[in-house]
Protein: FAD-dependent oxidoreductase
Amino acid sequence: MKNVDYIIVGGGYAGIFFAHQLIAHNKSFVLFSGDRKGASKVSAGVINPVVLKKFTTFWLAEEQIDFLAKTMSEIETYTRKNYLINENIHRIFHDEKEKELWLSKTETDELGPFLNSYFETLETIKNPFGTGSVKKSARLDVDAFFKDFFDYFKVNNQLIQEQFDYSQLSENTYKDFTFKNLVFCEGMGVRANPYFNDIQVIPNKGHHLKVRLSVKLDHQYTLKKKHFLFPLNEDVYYYGGTYDPNEREDEIDEFKREELIVGLQEFYPHDFEVEEINYGFRPTVKDRRPILGNHPEHENYFIYNGLGARGILNGCYFSRELYEHIENGKKLIPEVDLKRFIKK
Ligand SMILES: Cc1cc2nc3c(=O)[nH]c(=O)nc-3n(C[C@H](O)[C@H](O)[C@H](O)COP(=O)(O)OP(=O)(O)OC[C@H]3O[C@@H](n4cnc5c(N)ncnc54)[C@H](O)[C@@H]3O)c2cc1C
Structure:
């Protein structure tokens, strides 16, 4: 038998950021990662404190951005890399009215820290009304982040690349392991989890393209009109992701490819080739808040889910909340507490 402080199930943003808390606090763990692809590895990696449809911000945005920067510096001490790409989002305006709305929001306490009042017109793309940039926005180097973490776990014998089999779980024992706490970070995989499958986590399917642009952009910004466009390497760019709250099959929806092509053609006037299309299912919650907490009968089995469209900011920030709750009895913020779903 091998004794560990924690078993983590799932290696997306929830699992990885929680693992970081364990590494930072010298706790032992193993992380199970199945071969079913999750949402995190297909995500754009955009870190954005502003809702760019309506020019509003969201709950805890500033605290989350600051905490992410601090966490990334801590991670750098052991992976030797900082995964934050400090390129701002440039929102392409649809018309003058939208630009005026943006400008008026720059004067509010809520949006002032995030919306730049200086507008830019960019070369190569169609942007007759210019662009406004979002301060404190950035991108995560998603591929490098996951590759390095998985390599790190392998070297430290912390990674088990197999599907966690719920039928093999009995109290504090799973196969050859005994553990103090078990944290389920399964994203939409939670539907197969007999302990938490009654929790309403709703899939929101997202597709994105990898495209080869015939005329490269002369900057590294993240552009946003309908969706995000940014460079992955020399001339391959990420464009996406779509939002589809309807229940969909686990396969590529061809009509989304078309939708993305049309979206990109709206502001990119040159030829491009689609190299790849991918999709994933965001784990969302009706009240748009993550879900943290323990099973009512198995008090050391925890759920960490519902990161929604903000896997990076939510995933990073609430990992610490969950860790502090488990180890130091810190009360969970009621808005994210699993108890809100338990009928009295
Ligand atoms: C197209 C797209 C673009 C996005 N862009 C952004 C963005 O720019 N910025 C942002 O912050 N967020 C973005 N998101 C949202 C973000 O990806 C999600 O919020 C996040 O990935 C959820 O992370 P998670 O760890 O909860 O779930 P997942 O990433 O789905 O990870 C769960 C993992 O658990 C594994 N698993 C499940 N059950 C088991 C089991 N029994 N045994 C072993 N392993 C198991 C799965 O295989 C999976 O790998 C995007 C999502 C999509 C789909």
Q: What stands out?
A: The first strand starts at residue 2 and ends at 9. The chain has six helices and 21 strands.
